[in-house]
Write the structure tokens for this entry.
Amino acid sequence: MALRLLHSADWQIGRIYSQFEPDDAAALFEARFTVVERLASLAREHSVDAVLVAGDVFDAQTVSDKTIRRLFNALSGFDGAWVMLPGNHDAALAESVWTRAHRLGVVPPKVVTCLEPGVRVVGERFAVLPAPLMQRHTYGDLTEWFSSASTPEGMPRIGLAHGCVQGVLPEELDSANPIAANRASTANLDYLALGDWHGSRRLDERTWYAGTPETDRFRANDSGQALLVDIAGTGSPPEVKTLQTGRYQWRQMELRMAVPSDVDEALRLLAETGPEDVLQLRVSGVCDLNGQNRLQQGVEAARARLRALVYESHALRLEPTDDDIASLRADGYVGEALQQLRTEQTGLEAERAREALVILARLLNERGASPVAVNAEAGS
């Protein structure tokens, strides 16, 4: 029998983005609910038989009751089956976010929560073999039982797991939970739906990571997608198509300043960003006072335009030119202090000297000593 599935994972509902300003963090928090609504819309649009969610539906066991309720409300756009698996962030502990959701009575009948291993037949259409995490970290392969599990004859066998495929993915993943690389073959699966790797990735013809549907980190790994899976019949190879789901584009810029034209290029790149971008900007090298001022102004303009911005300039060394110092028109003790701070930027207290130099230059500017304006946040 033909089967169509929508494969997703790593929603991490309730995630807190503490590295961003409060209004940006709140918008990114909300985006994770919005993308679930988008998944429901896609499931309806493509007439899928079920949506598979391969772990980490929630970001933590401690999410609020309101967050739990909002998550299940977001599923209302699709009336078909939702098959959900606990991952390492929301493991099926004796007392967990899942037991709390059931106790609250907010899990709709259309949602199949796989809180323990065992074959589950969904809508008389296919058999799910789930490998729920019962604790955050395990060191045995929880999918091993798939190979000996019996399912109704002629019904597609779908594996559902969350973890790290051995010998394929980097070791620094959130979860150390191992999965055999050949599990789809040894268990005679028609499709193995995986979660934990936050980008879409094909491991073999029948084994895929869906990735998170809304990008949540600065890593180019094909995130912000879901997988539409068509299986013509038992034993037929699946046809897998990626569907774009995410709203925000997480980008990184690594810029090195050496000459004034480098500041011009940085400002040009910043001007190309927009309201759907989440940007991490790292600046290094050397810059004079005028260039620092222009760069800081460009950063602040971008901060107001972007969805979120993380600016790192601790590796940018401020080196005022003789003209910069002369334009400050500082003499006597203040002039001597400026010169001393210039030399100390290469010593052990370089960071403090850089900050002090910027602050002093700003104060002189505010007193009308010079047309050069320097922001106190430089070098922070």
About this structure: The longest strand covers residues 277-287. Residues 369-380 have pLDDT under 50 and may be disordered. The CA atoms of residues 31 and 82 lie 20 Å apart.
